[in-house]
Design brief:
With 630 residues, the chain is mainly alpha-helical. Helix content is 46%, strand content 6%. It contains 20 helices and ten strands. Strand 8 and strand 9 (533-535) form a beta hairpin. Helix 1 (63-78) runs antiparallel to helix 2 (89-108), helix 6 (195-208) packs across helix 9 and helix 19 packs antiparallel against helix 20 (594-615). It is flat and about 95 Å long. The chain starts with 27 loop residues before the first strand and ends in a 15-residue tail after the last helix.
């Protein structure tokens, strides 16, 4: 069925070229925008695809349909529907593959152009999509079905550009989600890595990029040149390999502080050395991803010399940053950006620069995540940056077993993905209660300090939103806990216990509305703390914090004990019990001098006071503390 729109409205301008290497009329469109971690095939679409009857879509009899398909696809980038963003190249190619599925289905149904895509056929196509299976044998996710529904809607919205447009709105003016089954609120969000897995994952990655990385690089730097020298000297393959294998087998790995044996047993052969090299690369990725929060595309694009240093706002400290580019929310070339970089990330970049040095020299490129083909330590084939999908496979198949990553709480193997570092970073930085994160506190404390410095101007706004969302979620949960807890410790805790009308109640609508009021109207916020909550107010902060938050230098258990902002709940009991046990053990040591015994006694009294508050149903007693930092 033909549309009654005037011909003038169906005459879009078609560029002679869609890229520097492809003409409009070419059977294959190859786009620019190649960046590290991508392959040319991901920026390519072939119009000469087979149809169900064995013919090709580029055959002369389908010229008008082909031109409409090309016009529609290009319009999504050059002139998208009102209210929609112009598609980036990768997204455009993804849309092209969905368009191909639609065209093949239509051809199989005997249709010969988009004019046959009336409302009934559009909904029949969505039913067909809903029954398709993934390569793993699962049905398509609701978000994927919704993408196909949006494609149908876009065809209708761009109908005035087509010679043979769809005759009907595919959903009778209803929302596409009504037919795709997609619910944005109920969709399963990309997960963060649970604390019980993230903490050992990051800790073991940081360990691996220390002395172990030095060992691996030292061995590679001995073995690879020796192999090249003997091969260039004309030795046979066997004569070339034997001295290298002997060198590798004789190498002794270092003993780390506090460990009785070397961190790794002796290895045999270049494949085992390459195995260790790859694990160090993956450890560097984990450290950067989880301690910086950059996307995988941004990490894989990092280049040698990517560390920048700038003075903080008051000039008292030199802060370190990771210099790179943001691709997702910017043009294809990326937008320059600086991420706050703790010491472990500086170490990871140093290791990457040394690991990639011979590869960068060989390829004449500057990327840090260049990777060789094959499984050896020498390869003359072209080098390229590892892809995100390859990295996911390596993290799960090799890195996780290598560092003995623990299982998930339900006993299943946790599946790592490249986006989890970003989500977990935002969660850790946004956490108001960092109990249990002691192993990572130094890293995240440093990052938080940089991100809150007035001299820091971040352009990764999506990351900022992730952190803010986590902070809001933590604040809401903490306020609900503080308002309903039967027992609380600390000065603010005792005040809340005495005044809260929700004390001892279950969480209900009245509580939720009151928490909304506290957050939205009063601007109440919580300071980061490992041993309690700080309902933070600058004017009464014993740690002498400012408008950015508590002072990390004076933020100790003893100072918090004297602070009017401080509250402790049952979840913090283990922290105080452990502190009590630690100081009781110190007090029992006869070698302790008098000043240290006095300090230990003060800390014991503080812990007993908090634990009494948490255990007692009576009005807690008054307290006096020394106010000395713990």
């Amino acid at each position: 069925m033909m549309s009654g729109l005037p011909d003038a409205r169906r005459a879009p301008s078609r560029p002679q070229k869609v890229s520097d290497v492809s003409l409009w009329s070419d059977p294959r469109w190859q786009f620019e925008g190649l960046r590290p971690g991508l392959r040319l095939s991901q920026l390519r679409f072939d119009w000469d695809f087979p149809l169900p009857d064995g013919s090709r879509f580029t055959e002369p009899g389908r010229h008008r349909w082909l031109e409409d398909a090309r016009t529609f696809l290009w319009s999504l980038r050059a002139d998208p529907p009102r209210g929609r963003r112009s598609l980036r190249v990768q997204t455009l190619v993804s849309a092209a593959h969905k368009l191909r599925i639609l065209i093949c289905w239509m051809a199989g149904e005997g249709l010969r152009g988009f004019g046959g895509l009336d409302r009934e056929n559009a909904q029949r196509f969505l039913a067909f999509v809903a029954n398709r299976m993934t390569v793993k044998g699962n049905t398509l996710a609701a978000s994927t079905r919704h993408a196909y529904a949006n494609l149908l809607a876009a065809l209708w919205l761009q109908r005035h550009k087509l010679a043979d447009p769809p005759p009907d709105h595919p959903f009778d003016s209803e929302r596409a989600s009504t037919f795709s089954g997609f619910n944005g609120r109920a969709v399963e969000r990309l997960p963060f890595t649970p604390d019980a897995i993230a903490i050992p994952l990051i800790s073991k990655a940081v360990r691996l990029i220390g002395t172990p990385a030095d060992d691996v690089i030292a061995l590679r730097d001995q073995a690879a040149p020796l192999y090249l020298q003997r091969r260039e000297a004309g030795f046979s393959t066997s004569s070339t390999r034997q001295p290298v294998l002997k060198l590798i087998a004789a190498f002794e790995f270092s003993r780390l502080d506090g460990e009785d044996a070397p961190w790794h047993p002796p290895i045999i052969g270049t494949k085992q050395l390459r195995f260790l090299i790859d694990r160090v690369y993956e450890a560097c990725f984990v450290v950067i991803s989880y301690l910086v929060g950059a996307r995988v595309s941004e990490i894989l694009a990092l280049e040698a010399g990517c560390i920048a240093q700038h003075h903080c706002a008051d000039g008292t400290e030199l802060l370190s940053y990771l210099r790179g580019r943001i691709f997702k929310t910017a043009a294809d070339a990326g937008q320059p950006h600086l991420w706050a970089a703790p010491q472990a990330v500086l170490r990871a970049v140093d290791v990457l620069e040394r690991l990639s040095a011979p590869l960068r020299q060989q390829a004449g490129r500057s990327e840090l995540f260049l990777s060789m083909q094959g499984h050896g330590i020498i390869d003359t084939r072209p080098l390229d940056v590892v892809t995100g999908s390859t990295l996911v496979s390596r993290l799960n198949s090799y890195f996780a077993p290598f560092v003995a990553l623990p299982d998930h709480a339900d006993g299943s193997t946790w599946h790592l993905t490249t986006h989890q570092g970003r989500k977990t970073f935002a969660r850790f930085v946004g956490k108001r209660d960092r109990t249990g994160l002691h192993a990572l506190q130094h890293h995240f404390g440093h990052v938080t300090r940089i991100m809150t410095d007035s001299a820091y101007v971040g352009t990764d706004f999506d990351l900022g939103e992730l952190v803010d969302a986590q902070t809001l979620e933590e604040t809401r949960a903490a306020l609900e806990e503080l308002l309903t807890a039967a027992q609380l410790g600390g000065k603010a805790g005792r005040m809340l216990s005495a005044r809260s009308r929700f004390r001892g109640r279950t969480r209900d609508g009245d509580l939720a509305r009151y928490v909304d009021f506290l957050i939205e109207e009063s601007g109440m916020r919580l300071g980061v703390c490992d041993w309690g909550y700080r309902v933070y107010r600058t004017e009464s902060a014993a740690c002498m914090g400012d408008e950015r938050g508590p002072n990390p230098v004076w933020r100790t258990e003893s100072v918090c004990m004297s602070c009017a902002n401080f509250a402790v709940t049952e979840r913090h009991r283990p922290v105080w019990q452990a502190r009590l046990d630690r100081n009781l053990a110190l007090l029992a040591d006869q070698r302790l001098d008098e000043a240290s015994r006095s300090l230990a006694s003060t800390r014991i009294a503080e812990c007993e006071c908090i634990l009494f508050d948490l255990s007692s149903s009576e009005v807690p007693h008054d307290q006096t503390t020394s106010g000395k930092p713990a």
